[in-house]
Amino acid sequence: MKKFLFVILLAFLSAGSFNAAAQKHQPQTKKYEFRHQGMERSYWLYIPENLRPDAPLVFVLHGYGGKAEGYRPEMLATARKHGFAVCYPQGAKDGKGKNCWNVGYSFQKDYKTNDVDFLCDLARYLQKKYGFKKQNTFLTGMSNGGEMCYQMAAQRPDAFAAYAPIAGLTMEWSYKKNPHKKAVPLMEVHGTMDKTSNWHGDLKNEGGWGEYISVPMAVGVWAAKARCTHTEKTELPKKRNQVVLHRHVGGTPAWKGGPDVEVRLYEIVDGKHKWGLEDMDTCEEIWQFFSKYLR
Question: pTM score, two decimals?
Answer without folding.
Answer: 0.91
